[in-house]
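#struct-queue
[09:14] JT: dropping the first one here, sequence first, then the structure tokens:
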Amino acid sequence: SAFDRPVERVLVMRLDQLGDLSASMPAIRRLRELFPNAHFEGLVTPVNAYVLRACGFFDEVFTVDFTYDHGTRKRWLGRGAHAALKRRYGQEPVDIAIDLSPGDDSRPVLTLINARYRAGFKPHRFDFLDFGVDLLTRDPVNRREAVSHTAMISGFVEALAAVFRP
């Protein structure tokens, strides 16, 4: 295994909209199966906190303002969010911090987390990741993404499982 000791604390981050969080639920359930004895923390936007608390996969849920700017089509940390993340996750390390978003906007948030391992999509673009995959599928006719958002995230988690499972 890539871990030299049992995983005790897992942070799962999904700073997107409700549909993106919903698409991630099968992968989150799988992460819970992979690390059954770990303390699970979820990091989401305030609007998604209720859903994350209700799903029962998490021991704690922490929210942060990650605002979408329609002009730039980018997300950014809201006022005070940077400091709040540093207070919450800057000292006591988590064993693994996982960003389940395939998009780029939230990945830099992982740098604010004191984590033994950081995992996310597109490792070639984010050199601070300790584990990452780049999943790309194309329909042969229209060249659009061939698998669902849910399947892509589940594939990422299965790759993570292969590396971190004893």
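[09:21] JT: and here's the second one, same format:
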Amino acid sequence: ERGDLPYLAMAHHRRAALLASQGQQRDALSHAHEALRLRIAHGDPVTVSIAENAVGWFYVLAGDSHQAKAHCQRAVDRLRGAGPRADLANALDTLGRAYHGLGDDPMAITCYREAIDLYREAGNALTEHMTLTALGEAYLDSGDYDGARNAWEQGLRIAIAVAPEEAD
């Protein structure tokens, strides 16, 4: 009613996250796309990139890695030049998941490793742990068992230190 596009976009994003947590991926995507549309209308490039990455994430959850890759690549491209490094790390993580879903493990590994470096710079250990877990899966699927074990052991050490409930 007030025409507050950023808050309306945030409401759509949160609704998308809630629906996704309930397994309603297609409905989540509808709200994520609306959040992206509103962010574009508002015009802030960083929040547009974050919304673009969110759409990519919901496509990952829905199992559509092709669409996920397209959205995440746009987010990464925009954030490389002008966005916060933590947001770039998030977009690289999601892009890695899209590549992994497409079976392109070398590209997934490249994205994950860059995201991990950025998370370390930012001191974001919990997110680093989650990306290390995904990196291990990509290494495993590529046949690099030592790489998988190393990534998982690093992730486990972090989880034990910062999020013991995640360590299981």
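[09:30] RK: nice, looked through the second one.
[09:31] RK: The chain has nine helices and no strands.
[09:31] JT: good to know. The two ends are 46 Å apart (CA to CA).
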